[in-house]
Amino acid sequence: MFEKVGEADFVRGEHEMLRFWKDRDVFAKLRSKNAGQTPWSFIDGPMTANNPMGVHHAWGRTYKDVFQRYWAMNGRDLRYQNGFDCQGLWVEVEVEKQLGLGAKSAIEAFGVDKFVWECKKRVLKYAAIQTEQSIRLGYWMEWDDPQTLRRLADAIGTDEVIDFAPPKKPAEPIRGSAEWIVERLGNPEWGASYFTFSTENNETIWTFLKKCYQRGKVYRGHDVMPWSGRGGSAYSQMEVADGRKLTTHRALFVRLPIIEKPNVDKPNEAEGSHPLGASTSQPSTLDPQPTEYLLIWTTTPWTLTSNVAAMVNPDLDYVKIQSKRDGAIYYFAKENLDFQRLAKE
Q: Closest by alpha carbon to 182, among 158, 205, 212?
């Protein structure tokens, strides 16, 4: 019934399918068929255009493509707009490496405007690469021409005038400097991928913040957050999570004396018990010369002066251990007795 396949060449099959779609303009025909129908708006969480795609990017793009194809098969009209994240330390640190700049002061000496141009060059260069990779993956989107993105990257920061042809053909030809064109990439009249460094995107964000401020939703305050001393900037949660690594720190063990000692001889089960075995209903006594301690470990001893409490875990069992040196008694998590996590270098 079926012809037996002697050898499966998946890569060749993929290229044949891509050629089939391109030669017959399948994607454009699908969009034309669904045009004007009930819209289904997919907003692409932008991928940072800072390096070539990795396998994990391919996974994400595959899932997104499946959703879009499903809704297109149901006759819905989709936008098909990809996005590129263009700002932040991901890009800036790589450009610093590329230029041999080691600190914020070096960027200022190099020239902030020139540094921004270099960041935009890198984004456009890798947006072109990621566009080609996504097309090779079979990801259906309204793409910019990768060669046009490369030309914009080469011309940004210069006075060269460029003729630009976006996917959606405007009534008037587009002609201007690379900087002028780049600021407008992804706008609804031009189509194709949106770039977070576009003027439209940044002005939208500032307008939103202005409205939040006018409604009393923005305030000045203080918070603890991860900080880059070299870059002079706060880290985002994603940057901290992805950049986490094991390292060696100096640390301190501090013993906190138990001055107010609960009566633990007769615990009242009806009233409940503290995790260290102390009754909640029995009176406590003050110990002027404490011999029992909670053991605290910290890599930030300068915060100890502001500490107001030491926490214990109600789900753990604690034991008392006595020091041979001075007879001091410490409350210690039982499961940690055999857990060797200290190393001396």
A: 158
